[in-house]
Design goal:
The protein is mainly α. It is built from nine helices and no strands. The chain is elongated and about 75 Å long. About 15% of the residues are buried.
Length: about 260
């Protein structure tokens, strides 16, 4: 559907362009040709530093919007949360309940909650001084990466970090400040996946026991044609609700990041 929408939008824009071109060339009977204003984008000489600063801000905003999905996936707690919630849905056997939109939305809001202290520190130490023209963009980028590096290093295993240091042929660092950010990011990702799979296993285990018990009861009663999932699903939901599963799961996820 997205591809079809893009094609339709392209055809509409193409038709609009053809219509404008025809309007420019075709003159109404007994009148002058229709004049259409021309819009151009160029690079010229700035008259003040404020004009350059505005252009740089716009460029940085476009770059941030383009890279925002990658930052959310690689440099925040989003990966662990969305994987754990996906494991929970599969363990319950509820197919598409909660829906993907709800899972992604909950993961995004929990990510904002967990990462808010980090983003606040970035705003205070990097964004605010840069907007006040107290530091340059290079210093602002260095200050902005410091809280993110600290967060990722706190959640990254030393073994995973050593793996990427080895495969990238980097010299042995004296301290964490010598480790490049582009090495920390993939190590943080696989550490997050490992932690998410461990939590997913602990979530799946009690529901697996319920499935095994229900299957054994059905087999002993000779009801082999009845799918066990139809009987076990209400019991799994009952266990999850009675145990206040959402409270325990979200609390454990947030506490796993040391918030």
């Amino acid at each position: 559907m997205r591809v079809i929408s893009i094609i339709v939008m392209g055809l509409v824009l193409l038709g609009a362009g053809v219509g404008v071109a025809q309007a420019q060339t075709a003159a109404p009977p007994g009148g002058s040709p229709l004049v259409v204003p021309q819009v151009t984008i160029g690079v010229g000489q700035a008259n003040s530093p404020d004009q350059v600063s505005t252009a740089v801000k716009l460029l940085l905003l476009i770059a941030v919007l383009a890279l925002a999905p990658s930052f959310i996936l690689m440099l925040t707690s989003f990966t662990r949360i969305v994987v754990v919630l996906s494991f929970l849905r599969q363990a319950l056997g509820t197919n598409q309940t909660p829906t993907n939109q709800i899972v992604l939305g909950l993961s995004l809001f929990l990510t904002v909650f967990i990462m808010f202290p980090v983003w606040t520190q970035i705003h205070q130490t990097a964004v605010k001084p840069y907007m006040a023209q107290q530091i340059g963009y290079e210093e602002a980028f260095t200050r902005a990466m410091a809280p993110l590096r600290a967060f990722m290093l706190k959640q990254t295993r030393e073994k995973d970090l050593g793996l990427f240091m080895k495969v990238s042929h980097q010299p042995r660092p004296q301290n964490v400040n010598d480790v490049p950010t582009w090495v920390i990011a993939p190590a943080f990702m696989i550490s997050e996946l490992r932690t998410a799979f461990m939590i997913g296993f602990m979530i799946w285990l009690p529901f697996l026991i319920v499935d095994m018990v229900i299957s054994s009861i059905l087999m002993s009663m000779g009801m082999l044609m009845l799918p066990p999932i139809m009987i076990s699903l209400p019991f799994k939901l009952l266990v999850f609700v009675l145990a206040d599963g959402w409270y325990l799961l979200v609390g454990s996820l947030v506490n796993s990041f040391g918030v």
